[in-house]
Histidine phosphatase family protein
Amino acid sequence: MIPLFAQSFLFLRHGETAHNRAGIIAGSTDVPLNAEGLAQAQAAAELLAGVQIAAIWSSPQIRARVTAETVAARHGLPVRLLPGLAERNWGIWEEQPYAALVRDMVPPGGEGPGAFQSRVTAALATVTPPFPVLVVGHSGTARVLGALLCPGVELPRFANAVPVLFQREQEEGEAPDWSLRVLGAAELADPLLATYRPR
């Protein structure tokens, strides 16, 4: 089993970029956060300030890395970069409108869905203790996690800089059951999230 998947963990998509705002595919293009994205990252850091996080792992792309560093600063933690968490390479579709994107195809000069999932899964397999962790990445990363852990479940929209809990529950002798919870202040106060209570 991938060590990360032995317990619940938090996921955070990066803050907004100019590409997000304009509806343009970024993919492997290393675009920075815009002013709104920086504010979103700060808001996420405030929201998660009292949450127990032992380590933060992030895509190395600047939009994810800056988001991760903003949260990490509130926890006094370093950011551990995982190149395999970078967003999918959309080849010649990058810098094009979202309407050009076909997720189940291999874009010319880019990554197919299977290759992307394999890359992200291999990267996640290298996440090691301490736990609990926060993984900071991209919408593509989130969809891979959803497909791996919650097959058949309709996934929420992974909004910019909104934390999501991948929650693992397991009865003795049964396979683990995963669910997704989009987190706000009310959800973080829920006693069921005891793993993530303030230190």
Summary: Helices lie at 18-22, 35-47, 62-75, 113-124, 139-149, 185-188. The two ends are 28 Å apart (CA to CA). The chain has a mean pLDDT of 91.
